[in-house]
Amino acid sequence: MPDVRLASPQGKWILLTTVLGSSMAMLDSTVVNVALPRIGEDLDADLAALQWTVNAYMLTLAGLILLGGSLGDRYGRRRVFVIGVVWFALASLLCGVAPNVGVLIAARALQGIGGALLTPGSLALIQASFHPDDRAKAVGLWSGFGGIGAAVGPFLGGWLVDGPGWRWVFLLNVPLALLCAPIAVRHVPESGDGTKHGRFDVLGAFLGAAALALVTYALIEAQQVSVTVWITAIAGVAAGVAFVYVERHRPDPMMPLDIFRSRQFTAVNLVTLCVYAAFSGFFFLAALQLQVVSGYSALGAGTALLPTTALMLLFSARSGALADRIGPRIPLTVGPLLCAAGILLMLRVGENASYVTDVLPALLVLGLGMVTLVAPLTATVLASVDTARAGLASGVNNAAARAAGLVAVAALPLLAGMGEEAYRSADAFDAAFDRAMPICAGVLVLGALIAFATVRPLPPDCRKPECLHHGSVTTPPLEGVRSRGRLEVDGKGNAEG
After folding, report:
1. Residues 165 and 235 occupy one common structural domain
2. Domain identity same for 345 and 433
3. Phi, psi at residue 130, to the nearest 5°?
4. Do the beta carbons of residue 406 and residue 212 sit within 8 Å?
5. Contact between residue 364 and residue 307 where contact means Cβ atoms under 8 Å apart
6. Residue 496 lies in a domain
7. Residue 196 pLDDT greater than 60, yes or no
8. Model's pTM, two decimal places?
């Protein structure tokens, strides 16, 4: 039985360790979009390379995140967490000194592996270390500080890009790791699952990551139609089919497919795919639009996008309480529609756009929609399965959001007719941006229709989310659950819940 009290010196050290570790992944995931124009200019990269700079990280993170918690259970949560922190820092150092875009993309993929190791561990360490009476408060503090990190990220990233340079967006992780790892080794107790485990589903993880990688490659390179693109696309679909087959027949799969027997769980994950695909595509292009077309500095663009994160952080808990009273169907229908309206308002953002009259209204409406839908989405995911599988459900839902974002960043420029050099021309990028925003809005409307047609009231005794404050705009919050004598924690790329 964990017995560390939050008010004790050790409890404070544990909380600091988990916040520092999760902040590394949080800062990285929120600042890179702001740095993309400067990275492209400095490394002479085309749009496809910028897409891979974002997607290489999401690819390995999404493909391996479901195994991260299992590694901690078997080999020790603190040990795997520290390995993830050190791995992430070394990969960040490689990103910071990358001589060309190829090395940068490879280093970003390595970062994703480190993120898959450390992000599940942050919440797992809290739940495995603190006394049950203090655990909820500790999770609340962890998620609150994580939300602050999400809010500070774009501002800090913009300041670094405009000041010492984009490389410091990645190098900043090194001193954080030098502080975090020794504290973890000295002050955080080791924990693990004493029960026996089956084999790790390495084949399932490989097939899932391969399917995502191959489909992403085909989408990014599809503007130059070739035999290679077609072969890659077919291979990606085949890997996806093989992944489903393997997961269905393995005795201990990474993603047990029987969890989708719950129609509510399946429906909410379809909504998740829609809304987070739209969010990821929007934030990828919006940071470029503000700099390439509207003439904002990196700092200006990062600061401009803060209202959505601030609204999420301030009001997500209240949104969850409202959904408890009225049920999830209305919030999950109205929320995506508000987000679609906010994204369509971004069509007003062009050359010399006014922040107060053009940018801010769109982001406020978008943020209001996100506040409306994110907390009910998490609650519905947890309530749609048995309590014993709530951690798994959260992990699957988070992986679905990551995969949706990965595909959206790859596909949206293609669907909008964005050429390889579009981001170097204000007129060309603005025209493509105007074609992309209605696509994002349409996907959100589709999510609203699915929610209205399929989401049902939650049972009164269902499990409630532990992470009430949430500041990430591209992934749903992380949830863990203690059941059957073991702690099941499934991770996400962002380090707050």
Report:
1. no
2. yes
3. -85, 150
4. yes
5. yes
6. no
7. no
8. 0.87
298-339 pLDDT tens trace: 999 989 988 988 888 888 778 878 888 888 899 999 999 999
373 and 426 belong to one structural domain = yes
d(CA 412, CA 480): 33
The token duo for 314 is 């301030």
**8 Å CB contact between 302 and 288:** no
Q: In sequence order, which residues have a C-beta less than 8 Å from that of residue 439 and are 6 or more positions away?
A: 281, 412, 415, 416
Which pair of tokens denotes residue 152?
Answer: 């500070």
Give the confidence band of 488 by pLDDT, cuts at 50, 70, 90. very low
Closest CA to 443 of 400, 403, 412, 402: 412
Can you say whether residue 446 is alpha, beta or left, with left for phi > 0 and alpha for psi between -120 and 50 degrees?
Answer: alpha
- Written in H, E and C, the secondary structure of 46-83 is CHHHHHHHHHHHHHHHHHHHHHHHHHHHHHCHHHHHHH
Write out the DSSP string of 126-190. Answer: HHHHB-HHHHHHHHHHHHHHHHHHHHHHHHHHHHHHHTT-THHHHHTHHHHHHHHHHHHHHHSPP
Number of H helices, E strands in the chain: 16, 2
* Residue recorded with tokens 């639009």: 289
Give the residue with greater pLDDT, 232 vs 222. 232
Does residue 259 sit within a domain?
Answer: yes
Q: How far apart are the first and last CA of the chain?
A: 24
Name the strand (E) or helix (H) holding 96: helix 77-96
**Within this chain, do residues 423 and 289 fall inside the same structural domain, yes or no?**
yes
Per the DSSP assignment, residues forming a β-bridge with 4 are: 130
195 assigned to some structural domain: no
- Structural domain includes residue 494: no
Domain residues for the domain of 269 are 9-189+254-489
CATH number, domain with residue 157: 1.20.1250.20
> Which range scores top for mean pLDDT: 111-120, 227-236, 480-489?
227-236
Within this chain, do residues 226 and 110 fall inside the same structural domain, yes or no? no
- Here the tokens at position 409 are 């960043």
Select from 185, 186, 213 the least CA-distant residue to 61.
213
Q: Residue 195: pLDDT band by 50, 70, 90 thresholds?
A: low
Beta bridge partners of 482: 487
Do 245 and 274 belong to one domain?
no
From CA 332, how far away is CA 454, in angstroms rounded? Answer: 10
Q: What sections of 191-347 are H helices per DSSP? A: 202-220, 227-249, 263-288, 298-304, 306-326, 329-345
pLDDT tens by residue, 239-274: 999 999 998 988 888 888 888 988 999 999 999 999
Considering the domain architecture, whether residues 249 and 386 belong to the same structural domain is answered as no
